[in-house]
Amino acid sequence: MGRAFLIAAGLVTAYYLLPLDRYSARGTSVLLLSGLLAVILVFVWEVRTIIRSPYPRLKAVEALAATLVLFLVLFASAYYLLDRSAPGSFTEPLSRTDALYFTLTTFSTVGFGDIAARSETGRVMTMLQMAGGLVLVGFAARVLASAVQAGLRRRGPIQPETDAGEVGDAVLSEDGRVVECAEESADSGHSEAGPERRTSPRPEPGSQSRPEPGP
Q: Is the pTM of this model over 0.85?
């Protein structure tokens, strides 16, 4: 989870630090198309990483965070550049925070109405974001879930751990005696009752071996 948070924080920080004011109206379209292509490539790479990872569930969370935040930051940048290159595209001038706010309200289908697209280009971009959000929530989430299942199958079943009271081929019984476990051969037809145990008899107190009388 910490890595997913760092990815999201890094993308948002880059959104605020990148010099987006230098792009023109044509640069906005190029940025949007290139960004959408980058989102698709990152998503495909993350799916392959999930399948090969020993921890597919954790990688799926990281992949979802990276893809979702990249998608939102991309459209926020496009809205900000559109407002700079064509003033009046929205109901009010957009700062970077305003553009990100409008992107989040559109993605969450809240739409408070305080900021809305006024120009045709702005409305087309908003419709693209709505359609992309539906695909991201529906199709992408399903693909990530399938990738997690494939990764779990690739990892195989988890082997059970050895008993704590078992040391090598010997086990301590309740009265402290050592019980030797005979190894079961692969070709033997033993039942599932477990390995054969041989218990060493404990000598009775007072019983000592006496020498036999001589002739």
A: no
